[in-house]
UniProtKB/TrEMBL annotation, chain A:
UniProt KW keywords: Heme, Iron, Membrane, Metal-binding, Transmembrane, Transmembrane helix
Annotated protein name in UniProt: Planctomycete cytochrome C
Keyword Transmembrane helix: yes
Entry annotated with the keyword Transmembrane: yes
Taxonomic lineage: Bacteria, Pseudomonadati, Bacteroidota, Flavobacteriia, Flavobacteriales
From TrEMBL, chain B:
Membrane-spanning parts: none
Organism: Zhouia amylolytica
Annotated protein name in UniProt: Tat (Twin-arginine translocation) pathway signal sequence
InterPro entries according to UniProt: Alkaline_phosphatase_core_sf (IPR017850), DUF1501 (IPR010869)
Pfam family, one: DUF1501
């Protein structure tokens, strides 16, 4: 006021006007910030608008999901958004309405002033639509340069070790958070070893490390080269692949899948590049002349469940399996929840309803049909049998052609293509036995529609029967059609594959099948047929040696071999029509849909075949925006317990924003372009960083600033996985078996866990070293998984598991305190501890074996006290000692007491945790 | 004070507690100097001191995932006992009285019922099968109940019937999953898991969600019907068994005394406390808490699972069979568990799949025996809950995964030697009893042969919505984010069945 005082009042007014004019002019001409669609606008739309104006609902005919929808005419007849003209856009006007019936968001709190300003500016600036960062391919990223600084707390140097640290430290500096110093070397080797091999370090490696014979880099290389590396990382992949040893659903019968599990372990150990790893699993069967390994890899998508329950519709569950393949493929490679799009356009991400069926088109032409035999399978012949197959092959190549040789080979290897019995329809006096196998009664008949016999002179049949003298007549078209084949089925010794002469026809037709056996009672099945097959005739009929080759072929067909379910496509004459399902309902079929990928992602290369093979190439194209980012994000999560995008299952508009987007892109770009998709160097990059090597110690200030550790001012600290908890106890006690691969094993579990409906399956406890195999080899029955693994958050793998939620429950304590497996491990650790004379020394030794570091004074005195009390108790009661240590013929109180101490060590938080 | 009022009071009290918890705990920790190792310590643990000064700000759930939470709306009941007759019981021999069907017995089923229909096992044109049980009107409400259930008349007036429930799954596995997880495919959380996740448990010495099975087998869909799906595994049902350890690994190893176990846990926890001072990781605190809880559970579980100490008149009332795995024993256990504050008790009784393929599955033979096995225990359960004042706080739900056809089954088109019925999804009976449920009500009507619903059709999702409603949830708002989207028990369906609410 004192300034104004003494001035003429008019001067004051003029001054005020001038000031005002300056302010207004400045505001008009100041450079305006350009509003970004993806970082400013899309989050507002997702939060407030899209639930009523998006994929599922389009209230008022207005949707904000896709660009063309947002600017299209609404029910009012004009578009709600007029680019460049916010004032006249009803989208903005409705935000300002005072009438609650009109004001948007309807019946929800109004938008904030800031939000409305942003939206207004965006429209005035032309309402530019933009793609989310996750939908354009990662580019080369400039690495921020972080200068070495001193830690303000202890004065130590904070020195970036590799590029990762530059990204992390720059961000920490922005956040004004001080990173931790490096972890001490013994903590670090345990962390690294658990992360790379799933196990604590071996004694010899530990010794080399602590005596400075190994650099950190050499230590990392050494761990990455161990076979245990593949076992550790395979358990991550098997969660994604929904690998299990049973089929799921009611019956949950066993399924021999372990060859696929072993393939994954080997692929990791051989450092197979991720692009090849992808192609082999999704489309190995479609490669030129695939190897057996490539066929095994395709079992990835045969881990889908199979329903053997009587009365279920095989087509329903075939479709369910195909949809699971679509969903899983996008869960695993694209961090995208396609399951939403099954029924409607994605509510948040740019994927349209019909695009789901475009992807489904790639998967919808496989041979599997939810049959109890899990066909198609690959048969594993022995060397001698393989030689015979080669002979058959050579014969056909010589007397026929390569193409024919291949169909014979495929028929021997896969028993495909075949027509499954469940295709039979229009029964008279007959039925599908248990809705699975064709069973005609006396004078029974049925149809097989639309069959192509390839001009074959034989019909192949897989069947079994206990009756002699059943006459089967097969006619063309219907009961009045010409007889194509007529033969007698006699009692078989179990299931058999046989062939019978057939009139050769070279076009598609319906087959009418009759059965006659008057010796049977009413409603009694004559035989049970599993499938029908046709094969062009074996060439060289006139040549000598033909009969031997033909016999050899027939006997090979009937050889029972181990098998594995695999993927195979239908031949063209059996191709399945891929149709759109209204609202995701498989019974409401719409138009046919050609296989195609979502246009929001990378472009399709016309050179790619329009099959699963093309799809897999599209996924591992360097232009695909999501595959590499997904892989690096999940590997980062394996090591740090948190993804750079923390929502591992979702990388798109609805995901958490990445904590370090540039780092994510740098890693993704490097994986593709410098590491050629190899994962070992990617893992090495991460573990070499100072960020990874930091101490995981926290404190209240650090914790409260960043409870989730998303800025990485401290190293990772997490409870071990279910498998690791077991493997570590076995290793520390010396019980562990390092035997690799082979059928899954059944370590001891309490009685009465398996109660299977209608199945004789039993948990037969493994013997010898198989009792002590690594967790990855434990038999997984989906409806009844190994109980202690479930307690420690392993899943039952019915569907793809992207991450396991880590919980902390009393049931876990009960497992490690009371499960005989852990008691036995404690005993064997105690035995080694007792090699030291002195009790204190023994305890210190046991602790060091478990934790790879020296025990503190308070801890040792606590455990010594426990030992003394336990010793007194057992010493006073030798029966108790005997009960407690049933492993030992002559147990002593000393052993019992030390077992209690060893058990306590193996229950410590620090033991169950990677720090 | 009536029950609702009491529950409202409780809720208000809890809310005030939550609001003031932070202050309370701050004082508590400061007052105790922040160092102690006892249960008391963990009752006041939102702010946690670590040695190096400063406090971690944590919620109660960070340390104990089963900590009690108030539901968003005033609840009618606090706990649920869900009785599932696995295999699907025949409504036509139990609760849905169809005299007309009797008249049409043995006649061919009209084509109109069969057109465009698929059954699990019925083929061609089956014959109608009249009800094999006699029915009487019971209680003041006069609802019809079959003679197969003579004891049930004592409690019929406590019950609200749903006579026209439908499902869209006609095979056991998927239908059971649908009934318990809201989806026929594996991978979703069961209703018990949802409820335990939403409310926690009142008793920290027992699991919050307990499963008891009888009939010799687990349900067809296996343990997934009480699985936690994408919810943290701590919310999955814990199967308490009558044989072997009641809960897996609950027994101490042979030769280990309780005292020594206590000492062991004390040593572990004291070392873990040092670890916490070092690392300030709240997971370590949670682990200390869980080890204490495990120790308490080891006492509490065998105690609650032991029915021998119950007075004789109670044992008789339920028809308890000593040392056996029976539905009667499980009903008594359910009452004990609910009394102790367990949130959700799920009973499965196997053996209700009355296809008529043999004696045990004939609707006039085996089914009668199955009814006898459950009749007394169920009536006893409701009466016992009532006499203890627990029925007002508890919801009892009864049902199967679907119903059975009014037609005689003709598996694979053959005539069968026994009377049996195929799976039927269009209309079947369920009932509820307890707090908030209209006593003696009956909602829904089927046609004269019991094939289709005429009115009051309700879906599985509606049943779920109603159960959640009674527990104080709006089923549309009770969600969990997974794979990038919010999930609900009722997916995008479900309406609360107001007609059976008091």
């Amino acid at each position: 006021m004192s300034i104004i005082k003494g001035l003429h009042i008019r001067t004051v007014i003029v001054l005020l006007f001038v000031t005002l004019a300056i302010v207004v002019t400045y505001n008009l001409v100041k450079p305006e910030q350009v509003v970004s669609f993806s970082s400013d606008i899309k989050p507002i739309l997702n939060k407030h608008c899209i639930s009523c104006h998006g994929g599922v609902k389009k209230n008022g005919g207005f949707s904000l999901l896709f660009e063309e929808e947002a600017f299209a005419k609404t029910e009012s007849g004009i578009p709600a958004i007029i680019p460049g003209d916010a004032k006249n856009s009803s989208f903005i006007k409705r935000l300002h309405e005072s009438d609650p019936e009109l004001r948007m968001p309807y019946k929800r709190p109004a938008l904030s002033k800031e939000e409305i300003t942003l939206l207004t500016k965006w429209i005035d600036q032309g309402a530019k639509w933009g793609a989310h960062w996750a939908y354009s391919a990662p580019q080369e990223v400039e690495i921020p340069k972080h200068q070495e600084t001193a830690n303000v707390i202890d004065g130590s140097n904070i020195r970036p070790v590799n590029e990762i640290d530059h990204f992390i430290l720059t961000k920490l500096e922005e956040q004004n958070i001080q990173p931790n110093a490096l972890a001490d070397s013994t903590t670090l080797i345990r962390r690294l070893s658990l992360d790379i091999t799933g196990l604590p370090p071996s004694e010899s490696l530990f010794k080399q490390w602590t005596t400075n014979k190994l650099s950190y880099s050499a230590l990392t290389d050494s761990l990455l080269s161990k076979n245990t590396y593949g076992e550790k990382w395979a358990s991550w992949w098997l969660d994604l692949a929904r690998y299990a040893d049973s089929k799921g659903y009611e019956k949950d019968n066993g399924r021999t899948m372990w060859r696929y599990r072993d393939w994954v372990i080997n692929a990791f150990n051989e450092n197979m590049p991720f692009d090849q790893f992808t192609v082999d699993q999704l489309a190995g069967d479609l490669l030129d002349d695939p190897t057996t390994d490539q066929m095994i890899a395709t079992a990835f998508h045969r881990n889908t469940m199979n329903n053997d329950e009587g009365g279920t519709d095989d087509e329903e569950f075939r479709v369910a399996a195909v949809m699971d393949r679509v969903n899983t493929t996008f869960d695993v490679w694209q961090s995208t929840t396609m399951a939403c799009v099954q029924c409607h356009s994605h509510p948040y991400d740019p994927f349209k309803h019909e695009e789901y069926y475009g992807i489904m088109g790639f998967f919808n032409n496989t041979r599997d049909e939810d049959t109890p035999g899990d066909e198609p399978v690959i048969k594993f012949y022995n060397d001698n049998q393989r030689d015979k197959i080669d002979n058959v092959n050579q014969w056909i190549e010589k007397h026929g052609n390569q193409q024919l040789a291949k169909s014979y080979k495929n028929f021997l290897l896969f028993n495909e293509p075949i027509y499954q019995a469940h295709l039979a329809e229009d029964f008279t006096n007959g039925e599908l036995q248990d809705t699975k196998w064709l069973s005609l009664w006396d004078n029974g008949s049925c149809y097989l529609k639309d069959i192509y016999t390839q001009g074959s002179s034989y019909i192949y049949l897989k069947y079994w029967t206990n009756n002699n003298g059943t006459k089967i007549i097969i006619r063309e078209k219907d009961k009045n059609g010409q007889i194509l084949s007529s033969f007698t089925l006699n009692k078989t010794n179990g299931r058999t594959i046989d062939r019978f002469p057939l009139k050769s026809i070279d076009y598609k037709t319906d087959l009418y099948i009759e059965a006659h056996n008057s010796s049977l009672g009413p409603q009694q099945g004559t035989s049970s047929i599993v499938w029908f097959g046709f094969l062009e005739d074996l060439p060289g009929k006139q040549e000598s040696g033909y009969t031997q080759i033909d016999d050899s072929f027939l006997s090979l067909l009937n050889i029972r071999t181990p098998t594995l379910p695999i993927m195979l496509d239908n031949p063209s004459y059996m191709a399945r029509e891929n149709r759109f399902f209204e609202r995701g309902n498989w019974l409401l079929k719409g138009d046919t849909v050609k296989p195609h990928t979502p246009p929001a992602l990378n472009e399709w290369n016309p050179d790619w075949p329009n099959t699963r093979l093309g799809l897999s190439k599209w996924l591992v194209s360097k232009q695909n925006p999501l595959t590499a980012r997904t892989v690096v994000n999940r590997i980062w999560h394996q090591l740090f317990g948190r993804g750079i995008v923390s929502t591992l299952e979702d990388m798109g508009t609805q995901s958490e924003p990445p904590s370090h987007r540039a780092l994510l892109d740098w890693l993704a770009f490097r994986l593709m372009n410098e590491h050629d998709w190899q994962l070992k160097p990617l893992i090495k990059d991460i573990v070499m960083s100072r960020t990874y090597r930091q101490s995981s110690k926290s404190n209240a200030a650090l914790y409260n600033t960043d409870p989730e550790n998303k800025f990485y001012a401290r190293g990772p600290r997490h409870r071990l996985s279910a498998e690791q908890v077991r493997d570590q106890a076995l290793m520390v006690s010396g019980l562990i078996s390092y035997k690799m691969g082979g059928p899954s094993v059944m370590p001891p579990q309490p009685d009465g866990i398996w109660q299977t409906v209608y199945s004789g399956a039993k948990w037969t406890e493994s013997k010898g070293e198989d009792k002590y195999r690594r967790g990855i080899y434990t038999y997984l029955k989906r409806t009844s998984p190994y109980p202690s693994f479930i307690s420690f958050d392993a899943g039952s793998r019915e569907v793809c598991t992207i991450r396991r939620t880590i919980t902390n429950t009393p049931l876990q304590a009960l497992v490690t305190l009371n499960d005989p497996v852990y008691l036995e491990a404690s005993f064997y650790l105690a035995e080694q501890m007792l090699e030291k004379e002195d009790i204190r020394e023994a305890i210190a030794y046991g602790y060091r074996r478990a934790m790879f570091t020296d025990i503190s004074e308070t801890k040792i005195s606590e455990l010594e006290k426990l030992y003394d009390e336990a010793f007194t108790e057992f010493n006073n009661d030798s029966d108790r000692t005997k009960d407690f240590l049933s492993y030992d013929a002559t147990p002593t109180a000393k052993e019992a007491a030390m077992t209690v101490v060893a058990g306590a060590i193996m229950n410590l938080d620090e033991f169950l945790t990677k720090s | 004070m009536d029950n609702t009022e009491r529950l409202i009071q409780e809720k208000i009290k809890r809310e005030i507690e939550t609001q003031t918890r932070r202050h309370f705990i701050k004082d508590c920790v400061a007052g105790m100097g922040g160092i102690a190792l006892s249960s008391l310590f963990f009752s006041c643990n939102s702010f946690f001191d670590n040695k190096k000064g400063g406090k971690l700000s944590l919620t109660e759930r960070d340390l104990n995932p089963l900590a009690t939470l108030a539901p968003p709306f005033p609840p009618k009941v606090k706990s649920v006992i869900y009785l599932h007759m696995a295999g699907a019981p025949s409504q036509l021999e139990m609760f849905d009285y169809k005299p007309e069907l009797q008249k049409l017995h043995n006649q061919s089923c009209p084509e109109s019922f069969l057109e465009g229909r698929k059954f699990a096992f019925i083929r061609g044109v089956p014959k109608l099968l009249g009800p094999q049980a006699k029915f009487n009107q019971v209680g003041e409400a006069g609802n019809w109940v079959s003679e197969y259930l003579p004891h049930f008349k004592k409690v019929a007036d406590e019950v609200a019937f749903l006579k026209a429930v439908n499902t869209d799954q006609f095979n056991h596995g998927p239908a059971q999953l649908f009934m318990h997880t809201g989806s026929p495919r594996l991978g979703r959380p069961s209703i018990g898991s949802w409820v335990t996740y939403g409310l926690g448990s009142e008793n920290q010495n027992l699991p919050g969600f307990v499963v008891l099975t009888s009939g010799g087998k687990n349900p067809s869909a296996g343990k997934s019907v009480w699985g936690s799906g994408f919810l943290p595994s701590v919310y999955q049902g814990v199967q308490c068994r009558s044989k072997g350890d009641p809960v897996l690994y609950i027994d101490d190893p042979k030769g280990m005394s309780r005292g020594l176990k206590k000492r062991t846990i004390d040593a572990i926890n004291s070392i873990n406390k040092e670890e916490f001072d070092n690392y300030s990781d709240p997971e370590t605190l949670a682990r200390i808490n869980q080890y204490e809880m495990a120790y308490r559970m080891q006492i509490a579980v065998p105690e609650v699972m032991n029915i021998n100490n119950e007075p004789d008149y109670i044992k008789e009332m339920y028809g308890v069979e000593k040392g056996k795995e029976s539905f009667a024993n499980n009903c008594l256990l359910a009452r004990k568990l609910v009394e102790k504050g367990v949130r959700f008790v799920q009973l499965f009784d196997w053996g209700w799949d009355s296809h008529g393929t043999d004696h045990s599955t004939a609707v006039d033979l085996g089914l009668k025996n199955k009814c006898r096995e459950i009749d007394r225990p169920i009536s006893a359960l409701i009466l016992d809950l009532k006499q203890r004042g627990l029925l007002d706080d508890t919801l009892v739900v009864w049902g199967g995964e679907f119903g059975r056809t009014p037609m005689q089954e003709n598996r694979e088109g053959k005539e069968q030697g026994y009377k049996g019925r195929d799976h039927h999804v269009d209309a079947f009976t369920m009932w509820m009893a307890g707090g908030g449920v209209k006593k003696g009500a009956s909602w829904g009507k089927t046609d004269e042969i019991g094939f289709s619903a005429l009115e009051g059709q309700v879906s599985v999702h509606d049943v779920h919505a109603t159960i959640l409603h009674l527990l104080g949830f709006n089923h549309e708002q009770f969600t969990y984010d997974f794979q990038g989207r919010p999930f609900r028990l009722t997916d995008v369906h479900g309406h609360v069945i107001k007609e059976i609410l008091a």
